[in-house]
Amino acid sequence: MITARAAATFEPVGRSVATARSFVRDTLQGWGFSDIVDDAVVLTSELVTNAVVHAGTAADVLCLRTEDAVRIEVSDHYPEREIPLQNSPATMGSPDREGGRGLQLCAALATRWGVDYTPTHKQVWFQLNLPDRPVGTRAAGPVLPADLLPITDGRVRVAVVQIDRAGAISAWNEDAEELFGYVAEQVTGKPLTDFAAWPHTPGTSTGIVDALQLSRWEGSYGIRDSSGRVIPVYASHLRVRDTDGEPSTVCLLVRDDERAVLQTPLRGPSPESGTLSEPRATDPFEVFIGSPAPEDLDGLLQRTVERARDMLDGDAAFLLLATDDETELEVRASTGLPSARQRFARVPVEAGPGRYGSARLPAVHEDLTVVPGAVPLLNSTGMRSVVTVPLKVEGRLTGSLGVAAEAPDRYSNEEALRLQFAADRIALAVESARLGELERLRRGSLSFLVEASDLLAGTLDRDQTLALMAQMTVPTLATWCAVYTIADQASEPYLSYVLHEDEERIDGLKALLTKVAPPDPVPTPGARVWTAPSEAAHQAALRTSMRNLGLGEPMAIGAGIGTTLSTASAVGGETVVLPLVARNRVIGMLVLGKPSDEHFRQEILELAEDLSRRAALALDNARLYSERMAISQSLQRSLLPPGLPQVPGVEVEVIYRAAGEGNEVGGDFYDLFPIRDGAYGFAIGDVCGTGPEAAAVTGLARHALRLLAREGFGGPAVLERLNAAILDEGARSRFLTLLYGELWPQEDGSAVLKIVCAGHPLPLRLRQDGTVEPYAEPQPLLGVMDDLELYEQTVTLDPGDVLLCVTDGVTERREGTRMLGDDGLADVLTTCTGLTAGAVAARIMRAVERFASDAPSDDMAILAMRVPGLDD
Question: Which positions fall inside the PAS domain (predicted)?
């Protein structure tokens, strides 16, 4: 039975794919189905791409919700397009082909899928089943002996925090004050987001604001205490309303290592009532982990280290997982150790300094002071004895489990055998959970990279590309990031952009990085650790602290310890550098950082490397586009006169509008220049086409006109020689329409003009009585035939008369089938009686722009000359 539906239609344009992804993501998250969002977004993206890009039609997307599944249908209007059959996977083609991948993904990710045809539509649909969510009591479990119950350090404190409709804190109990160091008056009325360090997973857009709106939520995040330190907590949120109907969210929070107080794992199936069940054999896994087992990998690993510590009565325990190639171990869970400092730290398995000794075999170290560095994880922790055992699946190293104590000689081979027995029981479950988490991360990463590629491909602006790079990495991949750019091989890296998830720390971070030498632009792919920011920040914090204590030089006015310590905390974790390589050249570096003592996960670094490759190409494309635009604009400016001379007794106004975004040169041009005393030349022309060839003809025409006119040639001779020069260009020549004239202001207030109109729109004369008439006769355009016989016409502008010259971009302005034309231009000009030359040109341009709603598709030039009237 369908319980909800949502539908939308997307036009056959490229941006519709990203819009469709957002529609599906928002719909499923609104229904509370975040578990399947990533799979649904990836499948929708492929199917909508097939519709709007490959089929070239609009796409109809329909989301249907049932009690146990979600069905998404994507329809297009091209039923003749061939679709592979479900039972014939060979017809789907190679994954490297442009088509067919959407159906392959459906076959791989969807629970069910298919293709339906109607006379007018083709519909591809897929169904994703929802994970089982048993209702009822979830905390039921067996009665455990007292010695098997979880151990706490003291009284368990449960912080009770109430959040109002606007997300602000309205209640804060005494346990919250004790856990986080704030009294109620300090936090009441402030948003919870000011204190929460919310987790971010690639491809997942659900944030704390969304979580606070859910009817029930449970999970882990962090709270920044009064000293700025992040305290990991486990939380249970419940949405309630008071007697007036006002909604709020009650948040129960405990320290993350005490999550057993709040966590409600799923209960296993119980025997049917009224039946007798056979005694079930004891499962060694459940004996060690307990029942029910945690569902998520982090919960399973945390439960493992806690049980291992309790089993051997240790002071600390830790668990590391191996990378796919078994060359490194990554810290994933610990208890009794500063886990925030160690989490995701990596150590080599085999050779090299700081290696993790004996990772592949059980090992007992009776006193670590005798063999310092044998277990790098325990350096400077006060632990003296340790036992470690490997986790193996089918002979392959998948991890390592260790238990440590502060006293020496605590462990022997007997404890190692007990711990190895437990490790063998849980190794398969841990590896299965790890692979499941890795698969979810990869699906989320795929969705993240799809959206990132769309965003980067959607702009050619360099600054916007830099901003997008930073905003996509923070806070999804890192706490802060910086982008260095390299202009050319001889230039030093330049700090171009800095971003931190806390905006108040951006200025301090930028100031720190400007004082640190930039990382070396090494083209080697992959992330490499960069320690300079962390070292510089800690040195600055130390100097500031000493000054504050009176042990160093006095602090400058306005300086304080807060900003320095805050910056040191912001960059105190792991910092990595990824090269931005495009077209076999390093064009910059992407720097990612974590706060104090935190490390990057290997999966996150791999995702960041994929993103850096896409970002580098987008940044280089933006650079090339900017360079091309700058060259085009510079060349376009060189083809136009730098300024217009003052003509005694004649008002002159020019308006020039280039079509597009300045990425093409050529087209229309104009000029006004002195020939000799009392005589001026003017021209307005239009070269056929745009681009370098047209620009060459434009430059040739403008400079040849000035040179020939100043050599004393008359109008016909000037244009005939220009025609010959254009034809000499051969294949690079272009047709040219040109209106050329010479102007002589007269002492009686009039002006004499000699005009040659070679294929150009005829100039229009506006008399004082409002009549408009053409002011020349048409003659052949230039660049077509060798022998031209041109002639000039002599006319006189009386006081108050206006001469209007335009290019065809003005007269050919279109709106549908309508065109302004010569008659329309003349009608506008008749309304300009008594206006100055500047006002005439402005009114003409305004009328042309208003004639059509679309932006002009052709360059436009307007040259207006007016002889002032006797009353001016």
Answer: 160-190
